[in-house]
Automatic annotation (TrEMBL):
<feature type="transmembrane region" description="Helical">
    <location>
        <begin position="96"/>
        <end position="114"/>
    </location>
</feature>
<protein>
    <submittedName>
        <fullName>DMT family transporter</fullName>
    </submittedName>
</protein>
<feature type="transmembrane region" description="Helical">
    <location>
        <begin position="179"/>
        <end position="200"/>
    </location>
</feature>
<feature type="domain" description="EamA">
    <location>
        <begin position="8"/>
        <end position="140"/>
    </location>
</feature>
<feature type="transmembrane region" description="Helical">
    <location>
        <begin position="121"/>
        <end position="140"/>
    </location>
</feature>
<keyword id="KW-0812">Transmembrane</keyword>
<feature type="transmembrane region" description="Helical">
    <location>
        <begin position="146"/>
        <end position="167"/>
    </location>
</feature>
<feature type="transmembrane region" description="Helical">
    <location>
        <begin position="40"/>
        <end position="58"/>
    </location>
</feature>
<feature type="transmembrane region" description="Helical">
    <location>
        <begin position="212"/>
        <end position="231"/>
    </location>
</feature>
<keyword id="KW-0472">Membrane</keyword>
<feature type="transmembrane region" description="Helical">
    <location>
        <begin position="264"/>
        <end position="282"/>
    </location>
</feature>
<dbReference type="InterPro" id="IPR000620">
    <property type="entry name" value="EamA_dom"/>
</dbReference>
<feature type="domain" description="EamA">
    <location>
        <begin position="149"/>
        <end position="280"/>
    </location>
</feature>
<feature type="transmembrane region" description="Helical">
    <location>
        <begin position="70"/>
        <end position="90"/>
    </location>
</feature>
<keyword id="KW-1133">Transmembrane helix</keyword>
<dbReference type="Pfam" id="PF00892">
    <property type="entry name" value="EamA"/>
</dbReference>
<dbReference type="InterPro" id="IPR037185">
    <property type="entry name" value="EmrE-like"/>
</dbReference>
Amino acid sequence: MTAPHPVRGALLCVAALLLFACMDATTKYLSASHEVPLIVAVRYLGNLLMMIVVFAPHHKMEMVRTQRTGLVLVRALCLAMASLLIGLALQRMPVAQMTAITFLAPILLVAIAGPLLGERVGWIGWLATLGGFAGVMLIVRPGSGLPLSGVVFVLCAVVCNLGYQALSRVLATTEKTAALLFYTALVGSILFSIGLPWYLEDAAPSGFEVVLFASLGIYGGLGHFMFTAAFRYAPASLIAPLNYLQLIWAGLLGWIVFGDVPDGVTILGMIIVALSGAMIALKTRRPPEKRTA
């Protein structure tokens, strides 16, 4: 059993969140000159390759053995669709605002946990849910400058991510983590590879873009590994609220790379969403599910 080390766990979590933000920023950068399905396909294929090379020698049959295969595949499909929708949203809107809206998924999970999962919601859960909605309304309000298409894409991604997280909670009692990670990478790779003939480009990417494409799988694979490792050293009650630091990373990268600076009302909405999510995290005190593969 790994000895507790809260500082190491917190640092691993913060580093993982930076990698996830880098993955989103890289996706947005590449989407300016390449098709989003191509970008997502490369990311999933890179993630699958890392799973096979790094994890397969250690986990072997654990990676492919499941008890509820149908639900495992549906969960993977939900994440694949969320990844595509998030890429389409990033093509149209700033990284920080997109990230803030996606945090609606773990907040909404509390609202459906009662009727679907048999969990007690409580007044803190409902208050956090309403707060999350209010924060998102401030972000997407008329006059915010966000394109309607981008908002629609990211809200659809929230729905898909909600399904992914709900199934993750259901499957956590019967399935191995290695298998869940492997099937998300496998299903996404197959799904987007099938469509490659329709969005494969004639012009080859530049050398710099090749590096960026290659980095996507590394960001996702290494980020998930570090995020999982964080819970070996620190309790969920410490790690879960730290998830919302991803908003800070997203804001910094959006400013540095794209020059995007949210206005005061948008920042207020992002803070409300983060606080609502932190309330949920402290209430549940269990490892939250991530949206990116």
